[in-house]
Amino acid sequence: xxxxxxxxxxxxxxxxxxxxxxxxxxxxxxxxxxxxxxxxxxxxxxxxxxxxxxxxxxxxxxxxxxxxxxxxxxxxxxxxxxxxxxxxxxxxxxxxxxxxxxxxxxxxxxxxxxxxxxxxxxxxxxxxxxxxxxxxxxxxxxxxxxxxxxxxxxxxxxxxxxxxx
Amino acid sequence: xxxxxxxxxxxxxxxxxxxxxxxxxxxxxxxxxxxxxxxxxxxxxxxxxxxxxxxxxxxxxxxxxxxxxxxxxxxxxxxxxxxxxxxxxxxxxxxxxxxxxxxxxxxxxxxxxxxxxxxxxxxxxxxxxxxxxxxxxxxxxxxxxxxxxxxxxxxxxxxxxxxxxxxxxxxxxxxxxxxxxxxxxxxxx
Lengths: 165, 189
Description:
The complex is a heterodimer. Chain A has three helices and seven strands. Chain A is an alpha/beta fold. Chain A is elongated, with a radius of gyration of 19 Å. In chain B, α1 (about 30-40) packs antiparallel against α5 (about 150-170) and α2 (about 55-60) crosses α5 (about 150-170). The interface of A and B includes residues 143, 154, 157 and 158 of A.
């Protein structure tokens, strides 16, 4: 199946929920609406033609300039038999960063969703244990959101006085 | 036999200083502090807390080319209970901080800490939300060894500085007011 064929099949199946398609570096990338993420991913996994059995990665994106679509959730799928890859993108607003969990489809999504929650604060509805996984438990913000500084506030050896400023 | 304390040959040099020691035929007198300090300094049991590349330099320091055994520190202790010297080598993530502190607390007095490399000393290049900006944020440090990573010679220099401390400090520095205040600042009782 070519990329276009896959896109057309999805469009036929899900209509308006499929927004756009792109092929950066020949990797088929499809933007879908967040509300339909479960049926779309379920279809991609279970349909014998699609056969995307493997969830390679699940991650987040923060793009604060795009109002209403500030937070992205990106799913990387892999059809191991045909060695085809597919990237599904979906966006939610920063005001209500909520999306259904895909643990019901891939158990492997458990830790990936915890990581995405940890770094971006995206709420995965239905997740059995949505707690921090990588950062220290008492951290009180989501560090990959761009309005937080990358640097640590407790650094002491970079004060101007050390450099004669 | 009367001792003539004024003759120079009856005084020995300890640690580069004229020490309070008296030599005679078949015996030597010195202070308890000096003897214990000398014994402690030359039989330090290090606990290597190696988390990254500085740990690799430490492996070189332990191996035959540099051979830390020459300084009486060849016996690594992987149990904090038996260790005298905590050697922190590498980046300490904030999540590792409480574990490092726990290891330090499990060590018995007298205990010393050497911080090896830029990351352990100050956070190094990792000025970021996930990394502890120097281990002295959670435990007190006796000697800092700079470098990214430091060469084995520098680590040995740090060990020698620790040995100087061990030889010259009071035998029970933990009873001093200064030490108690320092521990209190770190919330260690």
